[in-house]
Every structure is written in structure tokens, then in C-alpha cells.
Write a structure and sequence with these properties.
Largest sheet: 8 strands, mixed
Strand content: 15-25%
CATH class of one domain: Alpha Beta
CATH topology of one domain: Dna Ligase, domain 1
Number of strands: 20
CATH architecture of one domain: 2-Layer Sandwich
């Protein structure tokens, strides 16, 4: 148990007494506040007016996990599948060996890909529930509300105290990382770096505001590094490969990111990437990296001692028992079971979820699922093959203000960002225990929160 959790778990750590009685403000942030950037006004999810405070030890754990786990994911094709295209195709690409070949071509470019780990904090510390890979990672927006939260709390806003608490500007960190990756891919001699963003999942009316916000951030970071360039967005099919360079209209593009899921990659983008003309993290190989069954593979490799001693320990300590749902025997808590029977007879101890699901979709928590539905889900998972079973890692109850500013128990999910060697910080989603339905996700009604590190 970490030292900053004292008699009970609270979102304010051991600073509880410095914040507790300061509640003369609404429990939720007004996202129409004048200090909030225009693009985030009327933010679609509720955000608590209270900070989440963590100490140095928790920060270091999240930093290490966000840094190491993505690097170990990259080793799975070679360490577990021995780069066997047929096996990789069967596991990740529904048997399509041509797609698997393309995926491995991209994977072997060995470029850095952004990651957000979703974790829960249990009586045994942090547990990694899944690793989300690629550019379409939610949660970075919330830092834009930092000034509103600081203003509510003298401990965060007073000149002689505010430096004791730090947040990480995830978007700024990401921009530094993104520009570094583009330069690494296309060459450091280029002084103009143009970026193309596929925003198809963003409503048309909001797309221009989002692009303007992103472009301003991107240009500012380029300027900080003595560079120039611009961010563009349009239909991805408008990109053309001309004389070996990728063009948007008459502009050469050096990086492409996709803020959407399951997008078909155009031949022009694929060829430009293979020719090292663009940085493109959302390539075909991302299907391998983002598969939730990888957590089971990481545990298996760690149990076999395939990583360094520290990495083996890290994976076994922080990834809960996880297994693909198949007709097989398995070892759970040192005992051999038929997997199907283990899940049937102990549903309250397990979660079943789709290997490629997102935003809490196709997640079934045995504790909150009746027996008939659980058996139906298990049957579907066995037939489909692309599901995992995972030991249920229940969040400890953290005391936090509800929407009435009453301190009640809450469950928390932590989203920690890793951008290569850059730690991008963490944000939280929380749900009041009395309304808990198991899945704690912004898209399913959770309240978001900004995390401050105690210095």
C-alpha cells in the first residue's frame, strides 16, 4: 500500500485537511468559463471541480508502466510468434496472410506509437486493464481546464503554495513527441514539417475549431524548435503520392495521424510510410499492438523469463491474470482448471471483453451480470475467439465529492499516457459506488478529473 494513502483512501491523499472544507463552489466545472479554450466549451463529459492528488511514488509507477509496457508489446511478434506470418495472421488478422505481411512490414519500421494505459488502483496497487495504442487516445483534452480547478482551491492557486502541485500538459508533451518522431522519420535537415490529421469521427461543425486549436499548438511547438509547418485536415483520400512525396493539394506532408478507429489505409499513405517519407503511427501493424489479448501474452512471456528481471516483475505485478477465451485448460492461482468451467462457476471474479473493443463496449463484468447473460456472453466469446477473460481488479473506494459536493465512496479508472520515452501524465474517470455498474468510462457516464502531482 502506498504511503500517501492514510486511514482511508481519498482523492486528496494526505492533503485532505488542506482542501476538505473549501467547498463553496459547484461540484462540477463550468466548461463555458472564459478561461476554457473555445474548442472545449460545452465539453461533453462532466468534470469534477476537485483535483486528484498523487505522490511521487504513484507518479513513478505510472511513468515506468507507461514507458515500459508499450516497448514490450513491440517484442511480441518476435518473442511469441517467432515472426511467423501464418500464426500472426491467424491470431490478429482473421487468417489474412497478405494483411499480416503488410502489418509486419509496418511493424518492422520500429517507429514509436502513442499509448494510454487504463488502470485501476487495487489493494495490491495499480493493475493494467488494457493498453490503447495509436493517435486516437481520449483524455488529453482535460488539461485545458486546469486553471478553473486551481482558481477554486487556495492550496493550488496561492503564490506561495501553487508550485507544490504539478499537472502535466499532455497535449504539449504529445506535440514535442510528435515533432521528434516526424524529424526522426523524414530527416532532421527539413525545417518545414506539415501534418495531416484525419478527423472523420469529429462532427463536421466542430472539425474546423478542433483543427484550429490543434494547428495553433503544433505551430507553437515547431516555432519553439526553430521550425515551421502547418496542420491540415480533409478527406484522407485527397492525399496523393507524387514523385515519391505525399501531397495534400500542393503541400508536401511529413506526418499523418488518424483520430478515428478502424480506418482503411490508402495505398498512397502506405507507400509513403514504407518509403520513409512520412511518420505514420496508425499503420496496419497497429491492429497487432492494440489487441487486448496481448496482456495475456505479456504475462506468459514474463513467466517464462523472456524480458529483463525488472520487466518480468513489472508485468507480473501489474497485469492481472488474463487469458484468451478458448476451449482449453488454464492455470489460475496455481491450480489447473478448464477455462470455460472456471468462468462459469466464478463469474463474480472475472471480466470478459472483446479483444478489439473500445469505450467500454463489449465489456461484461461478472459481478454485474446475471447468470443467464454471463453464460450467453461466454458462449459467444468461445465461438468468436477474439475475446479475453481477465481477473476482476476492483478499485479501492476513494472518498470524493459527488455532484452534490457530498463526500462518498467512488471507484476510479486511471488513464496514463506514454509517448515513447515521454511520460504524458494521467487523467482519471470516476463513478460513485452507489451507482457503480462496473464499466467506468466517460462514454458511459463517468466523471472526469485532473490529476496533480504532489512535489
Amino acid at each position: 500500500m502506498l504511503e500517501n494513502i492514510i486511514e482511508e483512501y481519498t482523492i486528496l491523499s494526505d492533503k485532505f485537511s488542506k482542501f476538505r472544507y473549501n467547498d463553496q463552489f459547484p461540484s462540477r466545472i463550468d466548461t463555458n468559463d472564459e478561461s476554457v479554450p473555445e474548442v472545449f466549451k460545452n465539453y461533453e463529459y462532466p468534470v469534477t471541480s476537485w483535483p486528484i492528488l498523487i505522490n511521487k511514488e504513484m507518479t513513478e509507477q505510472l511513468n515506468e508502466l507507461s514507458h515500459r509496457l508499450p516497448k514490450l508489446l513491440n517484442k511480441i511478434p518476435s518473442l511469441y510468434f517467432n515472426n511467423d506470418i501464418k500464426k500472426i495472421a491467424e491470431f490478429y488478422f482473421d487468417g489474412n496472410e497478405i494483411l499480416a505481411e503488410f502489418g509486419m512490414m509496418c511493424h518492422e519500421k520500429n517507429i514509436e506509437v502513442g499509448c494510454r494505459l487504463d488502470l485501476t488502483y487495487t489493494e495490491d496497487g495499480f493493475k493494467v486493464l488494457e493498453a490503447n495504442m495509436g493517435s486516437s487516445l481520449g483524455g488529453w483534452q482535460i488539461h485545458s481546464l486546469e486553471s478553473v480547478i486551481r482558481r477554486n482551491h487556495p492550496e493550488l492557486s496561492d503564490e506561495d503554495k501553487s508550485d507544490n502541485y504539478k499537472t502535466r500538459n499532455t497535449l504539449k508533451i504529445y506535440m514535442e513527441y510528435l515533432i521528434e518522431q516526424i524529424r526522426k522519420q523524414v530527416g532532421r535537415d527539413k525545417k518545414k514539417l506539415n501534418l495531416f490529421i484525419d478527423m472523420r469521427d469529429i462532427e463536421t461543425v466542430d472539425r474546423e475549431k478542433n483543427l484550429s486549436f490543434f494547428d495553433n499548438f503544433y505551430r507553437q511547438e515547431l516555432k519553439n524548435q526553430g521550425l515551421e509547418g502547418q496542420a491540415y485536415s480533409a478527406n484522407i483520400n485527397s492525399l496523393e503520392l507524387i514523385d515519391g512525396d505525399l501531397y495534400f493539394e500542393d503541400t508536401v506532408i511529413h506526418g499523418v495521424i488518424i483520430l478515428a478507429l478502424d480506418v482503411e489505409i490508402t495505398p498512397a499513405i502506405f507507400r509513403a510510410f514504407i518509403m520513409d517519407k512520412i511518420y505514420f503511427p496508425d499503420h496496419v501493424g497497429l491492429r497487432m499492438l492494440g489487441d487486448k489479448r496481448n496482456l495475456a501474452i505479456l504475462r506468459e512471456l514474463a513467466q517464462s523469463g523472456k524480458f529483463s528481471a525488472r520487466d518480468n516483475e513489472l508485468m507480473l505485478s501489474h497485469i492481472p491474470w488474463t487469458s484468451p477465451v478458448e476451449n482449453k485448460t488454464t492455470i489460475f492461482k496455481g491450480v489447473e482448471y478448464n477455462l470455460s468451467q472456471l468462468l462459469k462457476k466464478n463469474k463474480s471474479r472475472f471480466v470478459i471483453k472483446a479483444a478489439r473493443g473500445y469505450q467500454g463496449k463489449d465489456v461484461f463484468i461478472g459481478k454485474f451480470t446475471n447468470t443467464d447473460e454471463w453464460e450467453e456472453v461466454l458462449e459467444k466469446a468461445l465461438e468468436n475467439g477474439a475475446f479475453i477473460a481477465q481477473e476482476f481488479s476492483d478499485s479501492v473506494d476513494f472518498a470524493a465529492p459527488n455532484r452534490h459536493n457530498e463526500w462518498t465512496p467512488h471507484k476510479l479508472i486511471w488513464g496514463a499516457f506514454g509517448f515513447g520515452d515521454f511520460y504524458g501524465g494521467v487523467w482519471v474517470r470516476m463513478s460513485e459506488v452507489k451507482t457503480d455498474v462496473g464499466v467506468i468510462n466517460s462514454a458511459t457516464g463517468a466523471v472526469e478529473a485532473i490529476v496533480f502531482e504532489i512535489l
